[in-house]
Amino acid sequence: MFAIGVQIFGADALFKHQYVLAPMYEINQNEFLGFAEYLYDGRHSLILNREMVVKSYDEDDNDINAYTIKDQAQWVSLWRQLALRARFYWGLGAAFERERLHDLRLGISSSVQDERVVGLVAGFDSRRQQWLSEGPSQGMQLRGFAETSSRLKGAYTGNVYRGDWRGHLALGRSVLGARWMEGWGQSGAELFQLGGVFSDDLTFTPRLNQREFSLRGYGSGEPTLVGHRARVWTAEWRMPLVDVDRAAMTPPVGINRISLNVFADVGAAWERGGSPDYHKGYGIEVMLEPSFLYLFGWQARAGVAHGVDEGGKTQVYLRAGRSF
Question: What pTM does this model have?
Answer without folding.
Answer: 0.85
